[in-house]
Specification:
mainly alpha, elongated, about 450 residues
Length: about 450
């Protein structure tokens, strides 16, 4: 934790400085190409000092703050258990490359001979070069006197991140040890790499061939792949066919509920407690099944709607058989209104032009029957579970006492659950207003002329 906190501050100081310096160079010279930049110390001395100090801190050269940060990183990787060697090797390689890049950004543009085309470059306003210089100097001051951030910044940060954080101590020099040897190796190899490998168009071309391995290319490739997958996913699930949407939802429910029921080894369905079927109940169910089959196989929309209405009426009869007249009346009203609305809408629709193929009907039939069977099994499972009667007894006892109503169901709807019922009514009202607005929507004469002209084209 300490190494991470320190390195974040180290990185912020030298990286911000190098970014600001790059902006100043680009502003004054018109280029950021390091192969074209050299000798700018003669015209941008304060900027050159800031760049040199930032490069020193980035390289981890004492007495910079970066030296302390890299020492803490090596100390952390060396004590990382079985992965210590691998992480330390990766840290060394990373720091070598950082040193090379930092020298190119902070030192290379200011050393060497000043090109003639840069001889007229002038110092920018001090408001531009002073901030990076302050950040660069801070990177040295904190390195020499790390105690100035030890108690005020690092200790609170480490304590906030760690549960059992002990007292920390920051100091620049830790003596001659393995960590110092690793730091010296990193600096030596990095500096050698800087003097041996000069940036050139040839190297740039070679690096561009490996562009596909860069983090930028990997992220862009991931984004392209994600967009491609999203396009396929959207076209499959959002293809514009309502039947496809419904089938997908039902298939998902079948898979989830089927898997749950198959893995549930304790079925408690007890048919002995069920009431015996009467003759009129059998007749009603038979009429219902007949209505369903006629709705499915009918070639006339009007006949299908009428058969669907028959199904709704038989459901109302079943509610009435089992002492639920309020539900029967509600079901009857809804089905009657639904049939009327369907007839009014279907009157304006053309006749069937194309029917589903035989394979599609088989698929839809299997899916529907499977879903119905699973819902039936689930309902039987629920009925087989022991039912608590506390809530039922509470409503039955208090419906008249608290709400002065003898119809328990109505009292629940308008009193005990009055807010829920009110919100449901509000939703239905909003939906009705929307439907009314759509039905009343009419094109103006001007809009009709525009539509006709477009159709002619």
């Amino acid at each position: 934790l300490l190494a991470a906190c320190v390195f974040i501050l180290v990185h912020a100081l030298y990286k911000a400085t190098l970014f600001l310096i790059t902006g100043i160079i680009d502003h004054e010279t018109g280029t950021r190409d390091v192969t074209m930049l050299s000798g700018l110390r003669k015209v941008l001395l304060p900027v050159a000092i800031a760049g040199f100090l930032a490069a020193i801190s980035n390289a981890g050269i004492p007495p910079s703050f970066g030296f302390l940060g890299k020492d803490l990183i090596y100390e952390a990787t060396l004590h990382f258990g079985n992965s210590a060697i691998l992480l330390t090797a990766l840290a060394i390689i990373t720091n070598i490359l950082l040193l090379y890049a930092g020298f190119l950004a902070g030192i290379k543009p200011f050393t060497g001979k000043l090109p003639e085309n840069f001889s007229k470059v002038h110092m920018p306003s001090f408001l531009m070069w002073l901030p990076p210089l302050i950040l660069a100097v801070l990177g040295i001051i904190i390195g020499v006197f790390p105690s100035i951030i030890q108690g005020s910044l690092m200790q609170p940060a480490v304590t906030a991140l760690g549960e059992n954080s002990s007292e920390i101590e920051l100091k620049l020099w830790h003596g001659f040890n393995t960590i110092l040897a690793l730091s010296a190796t990193t600096i030596g190899i990095g500096v050698l790499l800087y003097f041996l490998i000069k940036p050139s168009a040839k190297i740039e071309t070679a690096i561009e061939k490996l562009e596909y391995l860069s983090p930028k290319s990997i992220v862009e490739g991931f984004g392209s792949g994600f967009r491609y997958f999203s396009d396929i996913w959207t076209k499959f699930f959002q293809n514009g066919f309502l039947r496809h949407y419904v089938s997908t939802i039902i298939l998902f429910l079948v898979l989830v509920m089927g898997y749950t029921l198959l893995n549930n080894t304790r079925y408690k369905m007890n048919f002995s407690s069920f009431a015996e079927l009467t003759f009129y109940e059998v007749i009603t169910v038979a009429i219902m099944i007949g209505g369903i089959l006629y709705t499915v196989f009918s070639k006339s929309r009007l006949a299908a709607v009428a058969a669907m209405g028959v199904v709704g009426l038989t459901i109302s009869l079943i509610f009435a058989y089992y002492s639920a007249p309020d539900l029967a009346m509600t079901q009857f009203s809804i089905d009657t209104l639904t049939v009327i609305l369907f007839v009014l809408v279907l009157y304006r629709l053309p006749k069937y032009l194309k029917f589903s193929s035989y394979k599609t009907r088989i698929k839809d039939g299997v899916l529907s029957i499977t879903f119905g069977a699973l819902i039936t099994i689930l309902a039987l499972e629920v009925l087989s579970e022991p039912q608590g009667s506390e809530m039922t007894e509470y409503y039955a006892e208090n419906a008249y006492i608290l709400a002065k109503g003898k119809n328990v169901v109505n009292v629940i709807l308008v009193d005990f659950r009055g807010i829920d019922t009110f919100m449901e009514i509000a939703v239905l009202t909003i939906a009705a207003i929307g439907v009314f607005a759509l039905l009343k929507l009419r094109l103006t004469t001007k809009e009709r002329i525009i539509v006709k002209d477009k159709n002619k084209l």
